[in-house]
Write a structure and sequence with these properties.
eubacterium ventriosum atcc fold; single chain; disordered N terminus; 7 helices; alpha/beta; 49% helix; three-stranded mixed sheet
Length: 217
């Protein structure tokens, strides 16, 4: 992306760094809440960051797409003789959430519910797969093949299979009991980042199609 320049009349340069998305906790959004700013002049840096861009409606959660051109326009109305350059995204998505007091008991109950759903959901999926492929019958036949006896109840092979499945899940998801086994992101983290990027792209497109994007006039 080529840098967007608002004014070239001065050697003062203000840099705007935009991320794909940003979480804000105040209804009235200023430029410092949206972008990372840098300027050699501390007065310009401070005053530019305090420029108000828009205000979220009075509701708990909301999102808004703001373009870099809108920020350049807002700054140019205040500072006439500075150069403005953008670094990063051409637009950013702002997510607004009101700060609420933590409810420890409610939060713990929600966490416990999610853990139970994830545990039993994963267990059901694994059992369904093992039933479909006949894993139990295969392990029983292997036990009979190697020992010459038909197993009565769970066999050593089933026990080894269960332990191996647990170890495989831990290694695959790259998490131990308390800490990660390595610094690499887990497959779940990678998928969540891809999902987040796709959601952001969809929000930007929908906002543009519905003319809800805050852009320069």
């Amino acid at each position: 992306m080529e840098p967007a320049v608002a004014n070239n009349a001065s050697d003062k340069t203000l840099y705007l760094g935009l991320d794909q998305s940003k979480l804000v906790k105040k209804r009235t959004v200023k430029i410092k809440d949206i972008a990372v700013l840098f300027c050699s002049d501390p007065e310009i840096l401070h005053d530019a960051g305090e420029i108000e861009v828009f205000t979220f409606p009075d509701q708990e959660n909301a999102s808004q797409v703001v373009t870099a051109m809108k920020l350049i326009e807002s700054i140019s109305l205040v500072f006439k003789n500075i150069s403005i350059q953008t670094i990063g995204e051409a637009e950013t998505i702002l997510y607004y959430k009101q700060i609420k007091k933590a409810k420890r008991f409610t939060d713990k109950m929600r966490a416990a519910f999610l853990i139970m759903v994830a545990f039993f959901g994963a267990a059901y999926s694994i059992m369904s797969y093992n039933t479909d492929v006949g894993a139990g019958e295969l392990l029983s036949k292997l036990h009979e093949l190697y020992t010459g006896q038909v197993p009565e109840g769970p066999s050593i092979g089933m026990l080894a299979y269960s332990i191996g499945l647990l170890i495989g899940i831990v290694i695959f998801f790259n998490h131990g009991i308390t800490n990660k086994l390595s610094d690499d992101p887990t497959p779940l983290q990678v998928q969540m980042r891809l999902y987040e990027e796709n959601v952001n792209k969809t929000l930007v497109l929908d906002s543009e199609r519905n003319n809800k994007t805050i852009d320069a006039k």
